[in-house]
Every structure is written in structure tokens, then in C-alpha cells.
């Protein structure tokens, strides 16, 4: 009886459990259906709004007028900025659809414009935010994007842009001159965490709307990049960001406030979080451009380990892989990799440079690196040629300064600092560093040993190997380097607070590099990009003069004088400019090399996947 009773109870328990599980599954499915229904309702609401606006426009004849204006750029009806993208659509196998999938090697701290300060967030924002003009990657000339035309006053102080009248943000709200005015005013609001942008926009006296689709930039004084600054300003939608003027701290601490007029959008413009494990953009179905974006989605996976990224690429789960030099040769001989890949190695003139920054002030007090002779000694101890050969296998060139070796800003007579142990030791002795107790370490006159932490990004294996090499090189001179690996968000926090001894990082570059934000003494402030607190009045004067000199022939000698000062001062030990060693999946078509580098990811987008090779659905 007991056994039968136990069996019956057990069966009843199983049945009750099964019923509960089925109820939970049913509730889960209902929840998913409600969520899906919510998405559908939101989409239908937006579509209904668009239809109402379209009907009103048709009734007023505005649609015909907008079409005529938009097509006025070229005989083909395609504006110059979209000509290359349009040529892509004429390929026999061109097709829309599929996803573009890449990987970031680090967690992102925030995607919010202005608050973010790294190249990764900037890459994402580039798909969402737009500007008045863009550069042609072949000629490097400016071409209208949101702007149709423009005029520059004879004195260069006033630039007027006529804007397209058919552009909307991804939520359907029209983009007007008021959004340009707001973008400027928002950045210049002191409570908004945008010191980098304010440092440049401070040259502008005012931005004003002259009607709904004309915007005027008025400068306080001449500036050599006045047109670039005005035309390249990322346009923030006033209706979306204006509420944060009343709650700036919420904006400054936000992680994913991102909405714009670009070809892609966040599915939730307020919802991204750093723990998401990826960044995903979806096609902006309202995109105004003459050529619609080819991919349904653009996705970046967060994969911090180099080997894991390679495995993910090998398995076809990401579309590109930037190879490390020590694996590049073997990958070129890897039949599986080469069978599935396009292969590129290149160094465009806008390639950035890596450096070691010596922090000259910490906690309000000067550090040992405040003495120029110490910085010079450290540059003599940094064998850049050996780093390039041993760590990067020759796929790099020494960086003399912030200016590219091919730039007109660079003085070709200047050469990289040479590795010289004897000169380094002599300079350190001159400062007062000697091995006073016979332990092999240098000490200052107070007996304090010469030791410091070198902060670097922990997930970069090549940087780790370089730091260990430098540790050995410095030790030969009696200097103790303690490697100090950090996560990316922690590194950025240390930079903003200037809370580090020395740090190795990199800067992106432009066609002509304005060094104001990195080296001008006014930027040696909390959240400023002169994170090493470097101050040189003579350099400040030259930077100010160069920036105010519009004539290129007169400006370049000023930059070259500034370069000579930086070469002598060594605020950074300039390391190298690296080649890009890239493998791209063959499903990605229309890859071309331009004066700005490989056209993959350039906007307007110029790559696609033929229909037969597509593998992701909407």
C-alpha cells in the first residue's frame, strides 16, 4: 500500500509540476507576444505619422519641391557625396540585406556623444550622427551631405550653409537649422561634459539660423580649420537632447543616448548598456540619403581576447580580422583563411600614432617627469627600432611627432630619437639620479628609487609584450618599470583624472593635425586631453599662431617650429605608426583602397553582400 500510495503521490507530483511548467511557458510566450505586439504598435504608429505627413506634403506640393532640390546636385540626380555609393548599386550582383558584423577588442564605457572620448564609440556614432559635409575619399575635397551649398566670407569669419530640406532624424522629426544652433549651444554649455569639443568650438562666436534651412557660423577670429569645424559638427537632434540641459548630470553619466539622422539607428536610443556584450544598429528606414544603406544591421561583438577574435573570424561569425604582426605571415599561408578572405596591408596618411605619455603633475604636485631631461632620458632608453622589429615585425614606422612623416606639417630633417644608454644615464645623473646603495636601481638625492607604473590596455597582447621589453631595457639603466595593465574604462577614468605615472596609448590623426587639445597648456585640466599636464608657453604661442593662420604656405613653417619644440621637450616618447593588416570575408564586396585607407565602413557605405552569399535575415 505504501509503495502504491508513494507511486500515486509521485505521479501526482509529476503531473502538478508539468502543469506548472506549462503555465510558466504559456505566461512567457504571452509576455513575448505582448512585447512583440508593443514593437508592432510602435512601428505602426510611426508609419501612420509618416503617412499623415506625406499626405500633407502631397497636398501642398512640397514633395515635388523637395525632390527637385535633392536631385539638383548632378545630372544623374545623385549628389556628389553619394556617387561612390551609387556606383556600388550598379554592380551586377548588388543586393541589399544581410548584416555587417565586426568585433571590438574592449568594453565600451559609453556611446553617448560628447561624453565618450574613444575611437570605438566614435565609430558607432559615425553610423548614426551626420554633419553638413563629408570628405571625398579619392580627392579629399569637401562634398555636401546635409548641406547643399555654402559660402565663405572674404575674411573667412562667416560661413553660411544652405541645407537640404528633406532630411529627418530616425524618429521622423525634420532636421533643420535649429538643430545646428542647438548642437553648438549644447556643447558650449559648461554643465555638459564636453571639454574636448568646447576647446575647439570656442573659436566660434555664434551659430544662428537664417530661416529653417540655412545656418550661419560666425567666428571670433581666423582659424585654419574653420570650414572643417563647422561642416564637420555632428548634428544633435534638439528635441531629443534638449531636456538634458535641465538635468546635465544625467546626460554626463548616461551610457547610450544616441539618436541622429544617419543610415543606422539604435533600436532603443536610450537603452544601450556597457554590459550588453555587443553594440547593434538597425537600418534607419527613414533614411533620407540618395542611396539607401545596404545592410539590415550593423553589429559589433565585444571580444577582448585576440585568439578568440581570430577563432570567431575563422568560423565566419565576424566579417573582418585585424591581424597581429606575429601571426600575419602564418595567416597568409593558412589555406582556410586565404580561401575565405580578402587581404590588405596598408598605412594611410591619416594613420594614428602610439606613444608613452609622461605625467608631469599628479595630485597638484610636479612629478619626476616634469624635468625635460628625465623625459629625454626615457626616450633615449626606448629602443623604438627594436620594438618595431621584435614586436611588430617591421609592420610599422617610427613616429617622430604627432605629424605624419608624409604631412606638410613635418620637417623631414627631424629624425626619431635614437636609443642611447650612455646619453640616458648621463642625463639622469645630471638630474641627480645615481645608484646610491648598490642595488642596481637609481635613486634621487633623497634616496627615493626611480620606479614608476606604466599603464596600458590589458587586452592588447602586443602592447603587453612591448611593455615587458621596455621593462628590460629600462632596467639596464637602473630604472624600474612596473607594468600596470588596466581595463579600457578604467584607463579612460585614470586619463580624465590624470591619475597615473606614465601611460601608453595612441591618437588617431587627420589630414592636417591640430595639436591644440593634446599639447596646449589650457587643456591641462580635468577631462582635458592634455592629460600629462604638459605646459610650454613657447609652444602655446606657436599653436595659437598656426591655428590663426589661414594661408597654408605661411602656416606650415609654424607647425614645423612647433614640431621642433616637441622633439626637444619629449612630452611623449613618440613610438610608431602601424600598418593595418586586415583580412575581410569575401562575402563583403566592393572593397577599394582610397586616400583615406580601405573604404570598408566609410560613409556613405560602399560595401554589400551579394544575395547568394547572404546569411543573416532581418
TrEMBL record:
InterPro entries: Peptide/Ni-bd, SBP_5, SBP_5_dom
Keywords of this entry: Membrane, Signal, Transmembrane, Transmembrane helix, Transport
CDD domains cross-referenced by the UniProt entry: PBP2_AppA_like (cd08514)
Transmembrane segments: 12-30
Keyword DNA-binding recorded: no
One of the GO BP terms on file: peptide transport
Protein name: Peptide-binding protein
Organism: Thiothrix subterranea
Lineage of producing organism: Bacteria, Pseudomonadati, Pseudomonadota, Gammaproteobacteria, Thiotrichales
Amino acid at each position: 500500500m505504501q509503495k502504491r500510495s508513494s507511486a500515486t503521490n509521485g505521479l501526482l507530483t509529476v503531473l502538478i509540476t508539468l502543469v506548472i511548467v506549462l503555465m510558466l511557458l504559456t505566461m512567457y510566450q504571452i509576455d513575448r507576444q505582448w512585447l512583440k505586439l508593443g514593437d508592432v504598435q510602435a512601428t505602426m504608429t510611426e508609419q501612420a505619422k509618416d503617412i499623415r505627413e506625406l499626405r500633407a506634403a502631397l497636398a501642398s506640393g512640397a514633395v515635388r519641391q523637395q525632390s527637385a532640390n535633392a536631385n539638383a546636385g548632378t545630372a544623374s540626380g545623385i549628389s556628389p557625396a553619394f556617387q561612390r555609393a551609387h556606383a556600388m548599386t550598379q554592380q551586377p550582383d548588388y543586393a541589399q540585406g544581410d548584416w555587417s558584423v565586426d568585433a571590438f577588442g574592449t568594453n565600451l564605457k559609453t556611446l553617448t556623444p560628447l561624453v565618450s572620448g574613444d575611437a570605438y564609440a566614435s565609430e558607432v556614432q559615425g553610423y548614426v550622427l551626420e554633419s553638413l559635409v563629408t570628405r571625398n575619399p579619392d580627392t579629399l575635397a569637401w562634398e555636401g551631405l546635409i548641406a547643399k551649398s555654402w559660402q565663405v566670407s572674404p575674411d573667412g569669419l562667416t560661413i553660411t550653409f544652405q541645407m537640404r530640406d528633406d532630411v529627418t532624424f530616425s524618429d521622423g522629426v525634420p532636421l533643420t537649422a535649429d538643430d545646428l544652433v542647438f548642437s553648438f549651444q549644447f556643447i558650449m554649455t559648461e554643465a555638459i561634459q564636453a571639454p574636448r569639443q568646447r576647446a575647439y568650438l570656442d573659436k566660434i562666436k555664434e551659430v544662428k539660423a537664417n530661416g529653417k534651412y540655412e545656418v550661419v557660423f560666425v567666428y571670433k577670429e581666423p582659424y585654419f580649420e574653420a570650414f572643417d569645424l563647422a561642416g564637420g559638427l555632428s548634428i544633435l537632434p534638439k528635441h531629443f537632447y534638449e531636456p538634458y540641459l535641465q538635468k546635465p548630470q544625467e546626460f554626463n553619466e548616461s551610457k547610450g543616448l544616441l539618436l541622429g539622422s544617419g543610415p543606422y539607428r539604435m533600436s532603443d536610443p536610450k537603452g544601450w548598456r556597457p554590459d550588453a556584450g555587443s553594440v547593434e544598429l538597425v537600418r534607419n528606414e527613414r533614411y533620407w540619403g540618395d542611396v539607401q544603406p545596404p545592410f539590415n544591421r550593423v553589429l559589433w561583438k565585444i571580444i577582448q581576447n585576440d585568439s578568440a577574435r581570430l577563432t570567431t573570424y575563422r568560423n565566419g561569425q565576424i566579417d573582418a580580422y585585424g591581424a597581429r604582426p606575429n601571426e600575419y605571415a602564418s595567416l597568409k599561408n593558412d589555406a582556410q583563411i586565404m580561401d575565405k578572405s580578402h587581404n590588405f596591408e596598408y598605412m594611410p596618411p591619416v594613420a594614428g600614432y602610439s606613444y608613452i605619455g609622461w605625467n608631469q603633475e599628479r595630485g597638484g604636485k610636479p612629478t619626476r617627469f616634469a624635468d625635460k631631461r628625465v623625459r629625454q632620458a626615457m626616450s633615449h632608453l626606448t629602443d623604438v627600432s627594436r620594438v618595431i622589429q621584435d614586436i611588430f615585425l617591421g609592420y610599422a614606422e617610427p613616429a617622430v611627432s604627432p605629424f605624419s612623416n608624409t604631412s606638410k606639417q613635418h620637417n623631414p630633417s627631424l629624425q626619431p630619437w635614437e636609443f642611447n644608454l650612455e646619453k640616458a644615464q648621463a642625463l639622469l645623473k645630471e638630474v641627480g639620479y645615481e645608484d646610491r646603495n648598490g642595488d642596481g636601481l637609481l635613486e634621487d638625492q633623497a634616496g627615493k628609487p626611480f620606479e614608476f607604473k606604466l599603464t596600458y590596455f590589458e587586452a592588447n597582447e602586443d602592447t603587453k609584450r612591448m611593455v615587458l621589453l621596455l621593462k628590460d631595457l629600462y632596467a639596464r639603466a637602473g630604472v624600474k618599470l612596473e607594468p600596470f595593465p588596466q581595463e579600457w574604462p578604467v584607463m579612460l577614468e585614470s586619463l580624465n583624472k590624470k591619475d597615473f605615472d606614465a601611460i601608453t596609448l595612441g591618437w588617431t590623426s587627420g589630414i592636417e593635425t591640430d595639436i591644440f587639445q593634446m599639447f596646449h597648456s589650457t587643456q591641462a585640466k580635468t577631462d582635458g586631453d592634455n592629460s600629462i599636464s604638459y605646459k610650454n608657453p613657447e609652444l602655446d604661442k606657436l599653436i595659437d599662431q598656426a591655428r590663426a593662420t589661414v594661408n597654408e604656405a605661411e602656416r606650415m613653417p609654424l607647425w614645423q617650429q612647433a614640431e621642433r619644440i616637441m622633439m626637444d621637450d619629449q612630452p611623449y616618447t613618440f613610438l610608431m605608426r602601424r600598418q593595418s593588416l586586415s583580412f575581410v570575408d569575401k562575402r563583403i564586396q566592393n572593397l577599394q583602397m582610397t586616400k583615406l585607407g580601405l573604404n570598408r565602413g566609410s560613409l556613405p557605405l560602399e560595401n554589400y553582400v551579394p544575395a547568394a552569399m547572404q546569411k543573416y535575415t532581418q
